[in-house]
Design brief:
- The complex is a heterodimer of chains A (421) and B (168).
- In chain A, 30% of the residues lie in helices and 19% in strands.
- Chain A is α/β, with parallel strands linked by helices and 421 residues long.
- Chain A has three domains: 130 residues, Aconitase, domain 3; 97 residues, 2-Layer Sandwich (Aconitase, domain 3), CATH 3.30.499.10; 147 residues, Aconitase, domain 3 (2-Layer Sandwich), CATH 3.30.499.10.
- Chain B has 168 residues and is α/β, with parallel strands linked by helices.
- The longest helix of chain B is centred in the middle third of the chain and has 9 residues.
- Classes of the chains: A alpha/beta (421), B alpha/beta (168).
- At the A-B interface, strand 1, helix 2, helix 3, helix 5 and strand 7 of A face helix 4, helix 5 and helix 7 of B.
């Protein structure tokens, strides 16, 4: 009997031979905390009475959820994190560097075959780089900081293979929303998702990260993909450790397998207040929108900004709506500047926010008003998510969001894309 | 933790996410009493004021889905909730609740109603509804989660053991 990639990576981190369902204590290659979850992890760690974390070179701290600080309370938490990083010798990315998940990938802090944890549920993003990575709470993180280890149950694997070329106007986000809509917000609870198929192989790393990022939105522990030449090229030059790629054996035991043909999949929209309330864009087209947000660890990368700028170029956004755009890292911002994308977005009426989480977690930089509707490229649309429980949030691709900004209504992006059906 | 927990039920439905337990705008703090003040604010306004210490949450499936924020179980704990019962939990929240020392158990909560008096009998792996003379079975926790819970949470567990100790 063969093994799944999840079983192989965990096996390598317990120096043993594990199978799905086993309870193990695994070694951690990278542990990440940020400005929402880090302070509680540090307070808990301090209770152990140990001076140093297990290995400061395997930790990273990112200030991204509320930067630049909107108030003195959060400034105090930022100071606490900076002081902890400095006293422990832990690498810290300060406000303006970007979203934690984008930075971990971009800086090559993980490599294929790693086991990584982050005190953030979207840590599953690095599955796109063949990393067994998942979110944990701050107190679990304090245990990692103490021991370098974490207990876990080895997940069974649900295989999801995408086939065919998506039609013009349909993107990675639409594929993932479609999957979540099909299996539901608990459809992969306690499972490892294993993404494959020719559609995924044809995707850029950025597009793959959009899929893996949202694995948690159907409950999955990780959203793994095979490492290929694109993965290795992406990590080349980051100075990262030696990749140890693994993949599912054909004769491994899978919890389930699913094949999805994307060749005629229309753009998808997730409706308030649940990520799995997914419909084709045509069903909600014309819904009035007050704010559009393009950014986040899900969908703000260079190719996303390219798609958005392509639709916005030479046009103006609706006077009835605001467009906020937040590149998820300094590198993405600089690349977008060099390509002229930022000029096109700003000229069309968009507002550029400093690299970070932006308004996604509802702390600052674009909290919607009562009764307003937002369409966003983020990963969650729970009531109150963006800071106001009297607002509604729709989720869609950068193309659908850019098209909606032009019309001030949820719009089908295909009318702005040549060759679209 | 105690083997016998008694409290009154506050009923919740399916897919209660951690944003609903504590909204993101309140999470950036180390003052845990302020978290408790806003617990369930977006879906059950005034919840914190209705809790008597020791009360029990009875939820449907996938309780605690979404964000990994430890602030969610912390808010529940500081609000005075003594235990959580749910048909199923989101993976991260389940760990986080146990790590905070909150008794969080799996059971079929359909029969439980708002205000029901419940006695959790951990030794017997069941809960009692004394006013109805009924019992419901609990699904046992995994040994490591039970060990962490019995120590009062992960910090106390690691202070005692220094690392994770799995049976077998």
């Amino acid at each position: 009997m063969g093994k799944t990639a999840a079983e192989k990576i965990v096996s390598a981190h317990v120096q043993g031979d594990v199978k799905a369902g086993d309870y193990v204590v695994a070694d951690v290659d990278l542990a990440m905390i940020h400005d929402t979850t880090g302070p509680i992890a540090i307070r808990a760690f301090e209770e152990y009475g140990k001076e140093k974390v297990w290995d400061p070179s395997k930790m990273v701290i990112v200030l991204d959820h509320a930067t630049p600080s909107p108030n003195e309370r959060i400034s105090g938490l930022h100071t606490l994190l900076r002081q902890f990083a400095s006293s422990q010798g832990i690498r810290l990315f300060d406000g303006g560097e970007g979203v934690c998940h984008q930075l971990v990938a971009e800086k090559g802090l993980v490599v294929p075959g790693d086991l990584a944890v982050g005190a953030d549920s979207h840590t599953c993003t690095y599955g796109a780089l063949n990393v067994f990575s998942f979110g944990i709470g701050s107190t679990d993180m304090s245990g990692v900081m103490l021991t370098g280890k974490l207990w876990l149950r080895v997940p069974s694997t649900m295989k999801v293979d995408f086939h065919g070329a998506p039609p013009p106007g349909t993107y990675a986000k639409d594929l993932m929303l479609h999957l979540i809509g099909r299996i539901g917000s608990a459809g992969a609870d306690y499972l490892a998702l294993s993404f494959g198929g020719d559609t995924v192989r044809a995707m850029s790393i950025s597009e793959r990260m959009t899929l893996s990022n949202m694995a948690i939105e159907c409950g999955a522990k990780v959203g793994l993909m095979e490492a290929d030449e694109k993965t290795l090229a992406y990590l080349k030059g980051t100075g990262g450790r030696t990749p140890r790629p693994v993949w599912d054996d054909d004769d491994a035991e899978f919890a389930s397998a699913m094949e999805i043909d994307v060749t005629s999949l229309p753009p998808q929209v997730s409706c308030p207040h649940s990520v799995d309330a997914v419909v084709p864009v045509t069903e909600v087209e014309g819904t009035e929108i007050s704010q559009v947000y393009i950014g986040t660890c899900t969908n703000g990368r260079l190719d996303d900004l390219r798609i958005a700028a392509g639709i916005l170029e030479g046009r103006k956004i609706s006077p009835h709506c605001r467009l906020l755009v937040c590149p998820p890292s300094r590198k993405v911002l600089m690349d977008a500047l060099a390509e002229g994308l930022i000029f096109k977005i700003v000229e069309a009426g968009g507002t550029i926010l400093p690299p970070g989480c932006g308004p996604c977690p509802g702390t600052h930089q674009g909290i919607p008003g009562d009764g307003e509707r937002v369409i966003s490229t983020a990963n969650r649309n729970f009531k109150g998510r963006m800071g106001n429980n009297k607002a509604e949030i729709y989720l869609a691709s950068p193309a659908t969001c850019a098209a909606s900004a032009l019309e001030g209504k949820i719009a089908d992006p295909r009318k702005f894309i040549s060759g679209a059906p | 933790m105690e083997d016998l927990l008694t409290g009154r039920v506050h009923k919740f439905g399916d897919d209660i996410n951690t944003d609903y337990i504590i909204a993101g705008k309140y999470t950036k703090t180390l003052d845990f009493t302020t978290l408790a003040e806003h617990v369930f604010e977006d879906i059950a306004p005034g919840f914190a004021q209705r809790v008597t210490p020791g009360d029990i949450i009875a939820a449907g499936s996938n309780f605690g889905c979404g964000s990994s924020r430890d602030q969610a179980p912390i808010a529940i704990k500081y609000a005075g909730i003594g235990a959580i019962l749910a048909k199923s939990y989101s993976r991260i929240f389940f760990r986080n609740a146990i790590n905070q020392g909150i008794p969080a158990f799996l059971c079929d909560t359909d029969a439980l109603q708002e205000g029901d008096r419940v006695i959790i009998r951990l030794e017997e792996n069941r809960i009692e509804l004394p006013d109805r003379g009924e019992f419901l079975p609990l699904t046992p926790l995994s040994p490591v989660m039970l060990d962490i819970l019995r120590e009062g949470g992960l910090v106390e567990y690691l202070k005692k053991n220094g690392t994770y100790v799995l049976e077998g």
